[in-house]
Each structure stands twice: as C-alpha cells, then as structure tokens.
Design goal:
The structure holds two protein chains of two kinds. Chain A has one domain. In chain A, 45% of the residues lie in helices and 25% in strands. Chain A is built from six helices and seven strands. In chain A, strand 1 and strand 2 form a beta hairpin. Chain B is globular and about 60 Å long. By secondary structure, chain B is mainly α. Chain B contains eight helices and two strands. Classes of the chains: A alpha+beta, B mainly alpha. Chains A and B meet through helix 3 of A and helix 4 of B.
Chain lengths: 219, 201
C-alpha cells in the first residue's frame, strides 16, 4: 500500500501543469499588471504622437516665423484632420491630411502626413500645401533613421527651407550642381539617396492628393 | 550558503571588480548601440537599473518556489514584464527619447546581464543581497555606458548632453557617433582597463 501511494504522489508531482503553476500564476499576475500600465499610459502615449504632429502643422503651413508670431499674438488656427483615400492600381492608399483654417474660416492650407523608404529606414514627414494647392509651404521630418552626419541632415532647417514655395505642378528634381530652378532641390552632399527619397515621397504625395484637396474645397 | 558573497561584497563587486561591461563583457548590445550620446546612454542605464532591480527583487522573493528546469522561463517572464513597463513609461513621459532609443528598450529583455544576475545572485540569496547586487551592477553598467558615450559624443560632436564643450574649431569626428565608433571606443577602453588591471597585479 505504501508503494502505490508514493507512486501516485510521484505521478501527481510530475504532472506538467502542476509543475508550471508558478509560471502560470506569474504570467497571470504580470499580464494584469501590464494591462493596468497600458490602460493608464496608453492614452498619454497616443496623445504624445498626435501632439507632436499638431505642434508642427501651423509652421509647415505658414512658415516658422509667421507661426510663432501667431502664437505670440494669441491667435489660433483651426486644424481638422481627415483621411484621403487614393486608388492605386491594385491597392488603396490612405493619407492623413490636416486642413488648416484661420479663425475667419478661410483656408490657410493643408498638411499631409506621408512616409516612404529612405536610405536606412522609413522616413515620415509632413508636407504643407497652400490654399490653392499650387505651392509647397513647408516640410517637416517627423521620423527618420538616416546616417548621422550625412542623411540626417534632411531634418536641418536650411535644407528643408528649399522646399518652401516650390510649385506642386511637375515633379521636384534633385540636383547636385547647385543650379537654381523652380523645381530643383539641392542634394545633401554624401546623402543623395536620402535627398531623393524625401523628394520622391513629396512628389508622390502631391500627385496623389493635390487635385483632391481643391476639389473637396468646392463642395 | 556560507561561501556566498555578502550584500556589501555584491554591491562593491558590481561597480568595478566585476563591472558588467568591462570585466564580464555582458550587455554589449545596448553598450554599442546607444552610446552615441550621453542622454540616450543615461536613459538606457536608468532603464536597465530599474529592470534589474525589480527582476532581482521578484526573483529573490520567489527563489524558494523555483524549479531548476523552469527557472529560465520565470526569469524571462519577469524581465519582460518590467521591460514593457519601462518602455511604456518612457513613451508616455519621455516621448522623444523613446523614439531615439527605438527598439533598444524592448531589447533589454535579452540583455544577458539581467538574466545573469537573476541566475547567479537573486535566485540564491536574500532580497536585500539581491537588491544591493542589482544596484551595484547597475552603477557599474551606468559607468561603463557613460564612459563610452562620453568619449564618443565628445569626439563626434564636440559636446556632452548636447551642450558644446570643445571649441567650434574642433572638426567633429562623425565616425565616432556612427556604429564603427562604438567598436573602436569599446575596444580601446577595454584595452585600457585590461592594461591597468595587469599593471596593478
């Protein structure tokens, strides 16, 4: 009789589920803890992302100086976001577009959020377009992981300011000879691929949504 | 139990004699990846310190319940939980920094320094010893990260914590803030530490 009880006990102790009780309990406790953390911090993290974009929208449309002047004088812009859907050959592409209006409801311009492949990783940017959808009003790089010292200069103000007032008709071209022209963008030396990538994203975005912006305005 | 180091010994050992980076060569992934500036390096050191301290305490509390063949699962589970908490907190309160560090915060889960401390110390010794071990090792890790980041940021950008220190005439050695700079700096500093150690003995 002693033999069978000890055998039973041994089998009971070797049961997989029983052995893993600590792992299972811990997983449950930790899971609940993490759910709590996410519930507490999730909205804040989401708000951080939106805030970062919203802070940049006025200066991409009006220019940094004008935007600062506006905030200093206490004026605000009405910013409304919407999604523009673009039909590609096989798939649909979605753009988040921010429509910026002055207090008197006059359209100041639009800001589109766009992304594409850079040299190292995805580049995410904001591109501003004026009220008539004829010119680019500004560019801001939200996220990039280009080479430090070379490709990451796409975030520099000096380089980004080149895009201001470029026409949306026709594509932007990257040049290396510093020649001036309506649609010419000077490449960053040593980072032609990053420069071209940014221009490609903008060209693509403008050609995708440029016509849609003014057409919805008439409605 | 008698031959196990005491809490004070554990604490002191972690800082220099058993420095995680220079003596044990553990946790080299963040050491190489985020030391291109003092700010990311210090944020990483603080995150690792938080995770290591929590993981060591929890592991030490449940050390009596651990089964030898299931201990690694428990360690990983514990570490992953605290890393996720650290990741979320950074994203909520230090959003820009969390973007800079990118995938390296979640990668603390596989930082072998932490699992090593759970295995070597926390799963065998009391909560107090485990905690002081974690603090000592964290200081050691922070010092190592700080020393590498200091050399790289100073030579690569001419400043520390983003504040210019070297005269403007300094030609920034961009390579120092690029990945090769990490290997060069770590190699040279490691050599220095070994040379000092040899001279001392």
């Amino acid at each position: 009789m002693d033999d069978t009880t000890s055998e039973k006990r041994e089998r009971f102790q070797n049961n997989n589920l029983l052995q893993a009780w600590l792992v299972l309990t811990l997983a449950l406790i930790f899971g609940i803890a993490l759910a709590g953390v996410q519930a507490a911090l999730g909205p804040k993290i989401e708000a951080n992302k939106i805030k970062e974009t919203m802070e940049r929208v006025p200066e991409v449309v009006l220019g940094v100086e004008a935007a600062q002047k506006m905030t200093a004088s206490g004026e605000t812009l009405n910013i409304q976001s919407r999604i523009i859907e673009v039909d590609k050959k096989n798939k649909k592409k979605f753009y988040t577009v921010y429509e910026v209006r002055f207090q008197d409801n006059v359209v100041a311009g639009w800001v589109a959020k766009a992304g594409g492949q850079g040299y190292a990783d995805k580049i995410e940017l904001l591109v501003g377009i004026d009220a008539l959808a004829e010119h680019i009003t500004g560019l801001f790089i939200l996220d990039q992981k280009e080479t430090p010292g070379l490709g990451n200069k796409i975030s520099d103000t000096v380089w980004r300011d080149q895009f201001i007032d470029k026409p949306t008709a026709g594509s932007l071209v990257v040049v290396k000879d510093k020649s001036q022209g309506a649609s010419k963008i000077d490449a960053i030396s040593g980072a032609t691929i990053s420069s071209v990538a940014v221009c490609d994203i903008i060209n693509q975005t403008v050609s995708d949504i440029g016509s849609k912006l003014t057409s919805t305005k008439k409605e | 139990m008698a031959d196990q180091p005491t809490a004070l010994e554990r604490f002191v050992q972690g800082i220099l004699p058993e420095n995680p980076v220079y003596r044990q060569l553990l946790g080299l992934c963040p050491t190489l990846a985020v030391t291109n500036g003092m700010k990311p390096a210090m944020t990483m050191a603080c995150s690792v310190a938080f995770v290591l301290l929590c993981a060591n305490i929890v592991t030490s509390l449940i050390r009596g319940l651990l089964k030898p063949h299931l201990r690694i699962v428990v360690f990983t589970l514990t570490i992953a939980t605290f890393v996720t908490i650290a990741d979320r907190v950074l994203a909520a309160y230090l959003y820009q920094m969390s973007k800079t560090l990118g995938p390296y915060i979640p990668l603390i889960i596989v930082n072998c320094l932490i699992i090593c401390r759970c295995e070597v110390c926390a799963s065998k010794q009391s909560v107090f010893t485990a905690a002081s071990d974690a603090v000592g090792q964290s200081i050691g890790f922070g010092l190592a990260l700080g020393s590498i980041a200091m050399v790289r940021e100073l030579l690569g950008t001419g400043g520390l914590f983003g504040i210019a220190i070297l005269p403007a005439a300094w030609p920034d050695w961009v390579i120092m803030v690029l990945p090769p700079g990490a290997f060069i700096t770590l190699g040279l500093l490691l050599g220095c530490v070994n040379w000092l150690e040899m001279r001392r003995s």
